[in-house]
Structures are given as C-alpha cells and as structure tokens.
Amino acid sequence: MSAQKFEAFLAKLYVNDQARSRFLADPRREVLGAGLTEDDWVALEKIDWAGLELAAASFARKRASRPRRKYILNLTRWLRRR
Fold first, then answer.
1. Residue-wise burial string across 32-50, b where 16 or more C-beta atoms lie within 10 A, e elsewhere
2. 30 vs 1, 41, 82, CA distance in Å?
3. CA nearest to 67, candidates 58, 56, 55, 76
4. Three-class SS string for the chain?
5. 76: left (phi over 0), alpha (psi -120 to 50) or beta
6. Over the stretch 38-67, which tens digit does the pLDDT of each residue have?
7. What distance in Å separates the CA atoms of residue 29 and residue 70, rounded to the nearest whole number?
8. What number of CA atoms fall less than 13 Å from residue 66's CA on the CB side?
9. Which end of the chain has fewer CB within 10 Å, C or N?
10. How far is CA 57 from CA 39, 62, 63, 73, 77, in A?
11. 52 with 12: CB under 8 angstroms?
C-alpha cells in the first residue's frame, strides 16, 4: 500500500464532487482505477459513507467562506502602491 497514493485518493474524494460521485457509484472500480491496491480497496470498503459526505460538505463550506487568494493578492499589491 502506498500511503501517499492512498491519502491523495482520499483527499480527492473530500474535495472533488465528481470523483466522490463516481466513487460512491462504483467504489472498487474507482479505487483500482486510481492505481491503488486490493488492500487499499479493503480499507476503503469500510469507510463511513455518511461521514465522507459530511466531511466533504464541511470542507466545501470552509473553502467557500475564505476570501479568494487572488483577491487578497491584488488587494495587497494595491495597498503597497499607496
């Protein structure tokens, strides 16, 4: 099991709605298609589906509540010119 690949796959599930939908529709196919192992599949098979959705929604709300980075950079540049 590649911990880095496994963690990247989980992170993608948390932040990418389309990837999460594909995973929920056919989890085994998505896991193996991502290059993960059978052991990874066994671990992900036991995932708390409701918890996955709740965490993803929570992360989305947090991302939406933060000011956009580009806006902050532009504001910072503008203030430096003053």
1. eeeebeeebeeebeeeeee
2. 16, 9, 52
3. 76
4. CCHHHHHHHHHHHHHCHHHHHHHHHCHHHHHHHCCCCHHHHHHHHCCCHHHHHHHHHHHHHHHHHCCCHHHHHHHHHHHHHC
5. alpha
6. 899 888 888 888 998 899 899 888 878 876
7. 37
8. 9
9. C
10. 27, 9, 10, 27, 33
11. no
How buried is 74 (Cβ within 10 angstroms: 0-12 exposed, 13-18 middle, 19+ buried)? Answer: exposed
Query: At 33, which amino acid appears?
Result: G
Q: Residue 3, CB half-sphere, CA atoms under 13 Å: how many? A: 0
With beta carbons less than 8 A apart as the criterion, state whether 23 and 13 touch. yes
How many of the other CB atoms lie within 10 Å of CB of 15?
A: 13
Structure tokens at 70: 């580009």
